[in-house]
Known about the structure:
Chain A is built from 3 helices and 3 strands; from the N terminus they run H-H-E-E-H-E. By secondary structure, chain A is α+β, with helices and mostly antiparallel strands. In chain A, strand 1 and strand 2 (53-55) form a beta hairpin.
Amino acid sequence: MSERFKGPELLEDYNYAVFAAEGFEPLMRFEQSPPPGSLLEDFQLTLLATGESVSMQEVCRKHLLTVFEFGSIT
Amino acid sequence: MNELAAQYRGRDVGSYFIYTNEAHPGELIPHHTSFEQKLAQARMMTERIGTERPILVDSLQGHCHQYFGSMPNMSWILNRAGRPLYSSDWTDSGSIATALDYYLGVATERRGGANVTGFNVRRLDYRERDRARFFEILALGGQAAVEQFEAMFGPQWPAGDE
Lengths: 74, 162
C-alpha cells in the first residue's frame, strides 16, 4: 500500500468489532484519496462469483467507464 | 444502484461492488477475522439485499478500500485508462447518473472531433435520506449494531439538514 494512504497496521483496527469513533474515524480519509485524473495503484480483488483474483485496472479496461461502489452488508 | 447498472450496461459502463470491512458489525454479522468469513458475508449480502452487480472482495486488510479513503459507502467512476473521474464520499445513484451522462457526452464529443481538456470541479450533491431503510439494514447486523449507532449519534439521528 502507498505510504500516502497507509492505514492501520493491525487487522483488528481495520476490522473493528465495535462501531465507535475511535475505531472508524481514523480510517476515514476521503480528503486524502486520489485526486481526479491521477494515476492509481492497482489492486488485486477476489471475484466473489468464481473466487478468481482480478486486477482493478484490468476491470477498468473492459469498459469506457466503470462504477465502483464500496460497502458491506452492514 | 442495481437499476443504474442495468440502465447503463448497454452504454459501455461497467458496475461493480467492492466488499469492504463491516461498517456496523454486530452479534449477527460480526467484524471479519478471516478472509473466508469476509467471503461468506459478501455472499450473504447478495442473498439478503440482492446486490446484482459483480462483487469484488477486497483483502482482509482492506488495502484497496483504504487507498481510496475508507468511507463506508463511497463510489468512484474510473475511465478505461483506470484513472478516477468522479468520487463521492457517499453513494447516490442520482449523483452517479448525472456524472455518467456527462462523461458519456464528453466521449461523444471527442468522437466527433471536439478538442476538450479536463479541469477540476468541487461540488456538493444532495441525496434523499431514508431513515427507516437505514435502520432496517443496520438491524441485519444485530441489536448491538443498532445500539452502537444510537450511542454515537443519538436516537434523533438524522438531525436538521445543513
